[in-house]
Structure formats: structure tokens, C-alpha cells
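Extended Data, panel c. Modelled sequence:
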Amino acid sequence: MKKNICVVGGGYWGKNHIRTLNSLGYLGGMVDSNLSLIEKYKKDYPKIKIFNELDEALSNNFFDGFVVATPAETHFKIAKKIINNNFHLLVEKPLTLSIDDAKELVELSKIKNINLMVGHLMLFHPAIRKIKKMIDENIIGDLQYVYSNRLNLGKVRTQENVFWSLAPHDISIFDFLIESTPKKIISNGSTFLQKGIPDSTITQLKYENGVEGHIFVSWLHPFKEQRLVVIGSNAMITFEDSLDNKPLKLYTKKFDFEKGIPEKIDGPITLIDYENKMPLSEELEYFCNHLDGNKIKLSNGEHALRVTNILVSASKQLINDE
């Protein structure tokens, strides 16, 4: 049976949800208050239902689920209304801008038996899924350290700092790969463009299972770099998402302490194949496959709550640094 999804918000990222859902055959409608945008979508997607009020869409009795792609500050109010109307939903990251609001949505979704999913897109990237598989299969030995750089010149935001804007991707990846909770978070930032809004941050994370890592994000950087490095006791992995061919590499490198002195073992570098699939298509397909009520395990509300906890904890340190 065909599933019909309604997208709330047809702007910057919402248009990608609309286009992808349409290509998958799941697009049923959209909601937006911008009348000129509505007229555009009526021309581009003449067969879908289009509303300028969320209440109209909720009462239409046509949709199986909703995708929320509005500005982050509106997520809580919109998501709460959708859950209270008993619809499964996918909310773009971040879930909310506060811990209390995130907790309320997660608890409400449990009470209502609603699937709450959050758009941590990188969890559906085939390369990230491949890295997780390699860790689980002990290809790199014991996981020790993970770090990521997410750097570019822009897009500069005026309502949120660079950590809130870019780091959710990497925090969610760390949570997925490490399967542990940070016991210590240390975050420092630099502010040059706008008072009170850091342009670059470096955050160190020490996890309860002994793994450590750091996240470096900046929108004040001369070139684009999206690099993930995973260090194991026997080997290392890199993923360069900003390069054209997006290479995933296994480095057979480690240190041997058998004689009491660190000896570098410098083995071959192998290019790792992974599936050529679009993360957004994979994410939306996963969401639509759980509209029957089967519990979402990947990128669910609990996962989003852990990500939000780290965002809030690190941001408090950034504010106190000013």
C-alpha cells in the first residue's frame, strides 16, 4: 500500500525532502506559509495536497507521516502538535534547541506510541555504515580514537553558532560508531564575525568505554574539508566526504610495543568499496518503512536526545568562554 508523507517546510532543506520523497513515490503533500513558494510547488507538483496551515494537513485524513523541515526554533511546537495528532514523524536536526524540549518530545512519542525519527543524515551514508561494519568485525582492532573536521567558508548563520550548525552530524556519527556516552566534554571556540556566535570550535570528548575523540568545525575556513578519521589498535580508517570520489581508506598502521619500545608498523593503504546510494533516499526509505509502527532503532528520539545533550553541554562552555 502506498504511503503518503507530508513535508512541513519547503525551503532550504525541505525542498530536498520534497524532491526525494517524490522520486521515491511517497510525496503526498506539503505545508508552508510562504504563498509564493506554495504557488511554485503547485506548478512543480500538481498532484500533491498543499496547505498553508499545519492544522489543515493534520485534519485531512490522508497522510501516513510527516517530515518537519522548518527552522530549528520551530521544531518543538510543530513536532509536539504532530505527535499529539498521532502521526509518525521525522524531524530535521537538531530535534530541538533545549534538553527539556527534546525530553518532552521523546517521552510524548513513547506515551503516544509514535515513531519519532531525527534527520541525522550521515547515519544513512553508505560509507559510515561500512565503517561501523568494519569496527564491529574487528578489522581495526580495538576502537581508540575518532576525530572529524567539518570546515568551510560559510554558510554563516545569525541565530546559531557553528557548533550547533555543523557538529550535530559528527556527534551523531560518534554516537553511532562508539556506542557510548561522553563522561567528559571540553569545548573551546573563537568568535570574530558576530558577537556571541562562535565561528570555529574544537570539542574534545572522552567516552565511558575509554574511546576518545575531537570535533573541529568552522565556517571561517579557506577551503572545504569534511574528514573523518577512525583510529584502532591494529589499523586506521579515513573518509573524505568533501573530495569528488569520497574515498574510504583502510591504513594498516599501528605501533608495536612488544620489545618495550614503540615500533611503527607501516603497512599498505587499501581503498574500500561501499555502496553508491544517496543518504537522504536511504533515510526517507527507512522512515517510510517504519510507518507501520515497528520501532525505529537508527536515528530515533533517544539518539537525538544524546546528541542534544552534547550540543547543550558544549555550548554552555562556549558561552562561558566569551
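The longest helix spans residues 301-321. This feature is highlighted in the accompanying rendering.
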